[in-house]
Every structure is written in C-alpha cells, then in structure tokens.
Amino acid sequence: MRLRGSARTLALVAALALALPLAACSADGGDLAAQWQQGGDKGYIEGDGATTSIAPEQRTDPVVFSGVTEQGDAYGSDETIGSVTVVNFWYAGCAPCRAEAADLVAVYDEFSSQGVAFVGVNTRDQVAQAAQFSEEFGVAYPSIMDNAGDRAVQRAFAGQVPLNAVPTTLVLDAEGRVAHRIVGQLAGESHLSTLVRETLAEG
To answer: Which of 19, 91, 129, 198 is the most exposed place for a label (fewest CB within 10 A)?
Structure first.
C-alpha cells in the first residue's frame, strides 16, 4: 500500500511540474498578444510563411505610407504608386529575415528592371544596424526606419499585417492595394517571384 501511495504521489508531483511550465507559456502568450495589440517592443509574431492572395475585386483601398530611409531620404507610396511594389517588414536580429534576404535580393534583381519597386520596413533597428544588414546581404533597395514614434508605416498597413509580425512580405498592385501577403519567411525565391509575376500580369 505504501508503494502504491508513493507512486501516486510521484505521479501527482510530475503532473504538476509539467503543468506549471505550460501555464507559464499560456500566460506569456497572452501578455505578448496584448503587447502586439498595443504596439509594444517586447515580442514579435513569427508567421509560418502562409500566403494569402486577394482577387482584384476584393482588395481594399490603396495603402498610403511614408517615412525616412536608413539613408535619410523621404520615401513612401508617392514613389511607388503606379508600380507593382514589394514591401518587406524586417529587422536585423530576426533569423528568418536573415534567411530570406538572399531571396528578396534575387527577386529584386530579376524584376527591378521591369519597374517593380521594392521597399523594406525596418521595425526595430537603429540606422547603423540597418545599413550593416543591407551591406552584408547586398540589399540595394531602401528601407524605411519605422521603429520610433507612432510606427507610422506599420500602422498604415494595420489590418493587412499583424503589428510586429516579422518577417512579412506584401505585394502591392499598381494601384497600391495589397494583392498578396506572406506572413513568415519566404519559401524561396520562386515563391515571391511567382506572386510578383502574377501581379504584373494583371496589367
């Protein structure tokens, strides 16, 4: 009887030990969700790379955005309207952002001569970090520094992307409307190039 009681006690202790970390994870998840809703910096959503494509007749209004790049230049939708545009939300310490950088550069190299615009939206870094990333990965297109103040560019895309979801890549049609959305790391160069090609084909 004593052995059985001891076994039951051990089982109960083990169950409680397992339950406590799970409860902590659940609490942390709730806290992070609240931070994302409030635009906090303590957590970020890392998507699974799922792609959403939106038919032209179902797209929302054009997104109007602007900011200052790591080079100190003003840049935004005034510069991209009329062109199919790739918008990539990233920051230097984000592992999936680093992993997909070569794919973004390859698609930029393929389509920039066809008038496709590219712009990054850096959600966390200082200028020096962003510039170092661009140099390391050969990123030739500009990135808007959107980590200060009211995060104007991220908020301009509210409803299109979860706040602080990195990486996220959008393909805008020539009217500036979101045509495709990838939340998470690109599956590869062909993943993005296919979406860009489809959007260009809309004319």
So the answer is: 19
